[in-house]
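Give me the 3D structure for HTH gntR-type domain-containing protein.
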Amino acid sequence: MNRTVIRKNGIPLYVQVKDKVISDIRAGIYQSGDKLPTERELSAMIGVSRNTISQAYHELEHEGVIASAQGRGTFVCDRDDKVRLGNRRDLLQKVIDVALEECLQLGFTLDDFLQFASSRAKEKATLLDQSQIVFIECNREQVEYFSRKLEFGGVHITPVIIDELRDQERDALLQVESADLIMTTFFHFEEVRELLGDTRSVLAVSLDPELETIVKIARIPVHSEVGIVCRSERFAGKIRSALRQAGLDGYILRMTTTSDMQELSQFVKGLQAVIVSPSRKREVEKAIASHQSVIEFVFRPDAASVNLLRAAVADVRRKR
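Predicted structure for HTH gntR-type domain-containing protein (320 residues):
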């Protein structure tokens, strides 16, 4: 693998790592089924942080380029280039074709398969619809946004702030007690487990910045003055951390949580761009000048976390 990454060229480091892995696969250096270097090994080879490698691997797994197996490592997916670049619909069709072949070999008809599959899908939908999930995070804007992003198939996710658990607030405790499943991010996993004790299991999910968000920020000239507008200092801290991990730490960052429009208008004056949390975008757009850009900083759960959540929800409902 080419071990050189170019810093401060406007392209996030993890995007460069992704491109290098894909390039090596296309060149035949890594072939279908080959094991890739661990995050630690690749970090040492290229000279970037493990967080950068982890982010690149997360994106590659989401796009179907690689697959990870717990305890075994990370491997190149055994698929052609078109599927490898993210054509999940083709992959699903292959799964269905295999199931159809098994169905026929067992002596069932195609009509039987259609009936069974439809019935099973409805059962799964009912299980998901009846599930109550609590998502615990450290600030209101992030937990509410993530809860909406993680909802699927009729599942309702109730947001709970971690401070509400620390303070033993009654509503938060009741929501946790009645939940079928409790989830949080890896960042707060240990603390949530300590607060809840051994009586409840907790599912941790990984949340990454959307690639589109990072690309937009990377287009801002280095050393520009850039504002961060959100509702909490904690969320601003997560934005700063994500920018550092992506190698976008060459800006002069200003931050505010004010909701006063006059103060906000004064804050954005002279800034090259303003990075906003999803809940602040509209009001910031009213305060900026026409030449300034507003970039919504969006985190999203990775595909592996969503799939894990779906499986966990169905399993919990089945046991109960």
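Residues 110-129 form the longest helix (20 residues). Let me know if you want a second pass.
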